[in-house]
Write a structure and sequence with these properties.
Keywords: Transcription, Transcription regulation. This protein is mainly α. It has seven helices and four strands. Helix 1 packs across helix 3.
Length: 152
């Protein structure tokens, strides 16, 4: 499991808060719904557990906080194992990266290169390419591709 940009940001807010932070403050700071925040917290807590860290806790009437042991272990400079943390690109970041590669590279891009670049599956990349092709078409650009010539 990996954390995407939104969840990494949410974890960072909680990690750097000196006092428990109320959920309503997180809603304001992140422009996310309370429901999305709770869903993200479940995902973050699952990730923390896979890293051998204590999950985010809730203090009734005060808010959410990260236990001190987890806070200190998440500091990159202090914890060598945290270097293995993987960042998962958001959909928007993947799209920008793929578009830039298509538009700026002189050589033909391949499905494998996009998969390596974004760490996404072939199916996800194919879906992104299809959407980018439609967007390019609306802008008067044509995106050509050949099936089966995916040499990397």
């Amino acid at each position: 499991m990996v954390l995407d940009k939104r969840r990494a940001h949410l974890l960072s807010i909680i990690q750097h808060s000196t006092d428990p932070i109320p959920t309503k403050d997180l809603v304001t700071r992140t422009n996310l719904s309370q429901r999305t925040i709770y869903y993200d917290l479940d995902q973050i807590n699952s990730w923390l557990r896979t890293q051998g860290l204590e999950p985010i806790e809730s203090q009734h009437g005060k808010g959410l906080f990260l236990p001190p042991a987890s806070k200190s272990k998440l500091m990159v400079s202090k914890d060598q194992s945290f270097e293995d943390w993987q960042y998962q690109l958001s959909r928007q970041e993947r799209e920008v990266l793929i578009k830039a590669k298509i538009l700026l590279e002189e050589q033909d891009a391949s499905m494998q290169r996009f998969m390596d670049l974004t760490s996404m599956s072939r199916g996800t990349i194919a879906k992104e390419i299809k959407e980018i092709k439609q967007e390019f078409s609306k802008a008067g650009l044509r995106l050509y591709y050949k099936k089966g010539s995916d040499t990397g």
